[in-house]
Design goal:
Helices cover 31% and strands 21% of the residues. It is α/β, with parallel strands linked by helices and 190 residues long. The strands form three sheets. A five-stranded parallel β-sheet has the order 7-11-10-8-9, covered by helices on one side. Helix 5 links the parallel strand 8 and strand 9. The radius of gyration is 16 Å and the shape is globular. The N and C termini lie far apart (33 Å).
């Protein structure tokens, strides 16, 4: 849990400069600026997740967007009240997210913890017995994974797990691997 003076706090309580990457999941996985947070603009819940992750509308947002979405992303940010948002070019020095298919998960589970970032109502319907359940909403509110080791991270399909991975990378927590296709892929594969 992230705490300040013994009280649990939001993951970005003290940050005044945040880099948001609004490109697609595939683009973010292939290469992103270290320290950026994924909130894909193509996601149906872009506005909801952005406002949950960055509730302070006065922070300085540096925004990475695909060329085709730049105008729409900036218009949406301004409509939401983010008054200090500006486009940021993609650097040439990029980090990537390691990712695996559901077929490889049993082998990885021998050496890595599994982190399920779906919400409680979703995990109640089924989850991997060995997975640590930590809803993305709880992570954003400052709750951290139990272990500080290697994790394979999944949600239902991949969008939220990528948000979680990017947030944990900003905090320098754990070695993180994205599970392609999320829990849906596990159900279809196993």
């Amino acid at each position: 849990m992230i705490k300040k003076d013994g009280i649990a706090v939001h993951i970005f309580t003290d940050r005044k400069d945040i880099i948001i990457d609004t490109r697609s999941s595939d683009e973010f996985i292939a290469g992103h600026i270290e320290g950026s947070v994924f909130v894909g603009f193509g996601g149906k819940q872009f506005k909801w997740w952005l406002e949950l992750i960055v509730p302070d509308k006065t922070v300085h947002l540096e925004v990475i967007a695909s060329a085709k979405d730049q105008a729409s992303v900036m218009e949406t940010l301004h409509e939401l009240g983010y008054i200090h948002a500006e486009l940021k070019p993609l650097d040439t020095s990029l980090s990537h997210i390691e990712h695996i298919s559901a077929e490889k998960l049993p082998d990885m589970a021998e050496t890595h913890h599994i982190l399920d970032v779906r919400e409680t109502d979703e995990t109640a319907k089924g989850k991997l017995a060995s997975a640590e359940a930590l809803p993305l909403t709880a992570l954003i509110q400052g709750q951290m994974p139990v272990h500080h080791d290697d994790y394979v991270v999944h949600c239902a399909g991949g969008y939220r797990s990528l948000i979680a991975i990017s947030l944990l990378k900003v905090l320098n927590k754990c070695h993180l691997i994205q599970l392609d296709g999320g829990y849906s892929a596990i159900q279809h594969t196993w």
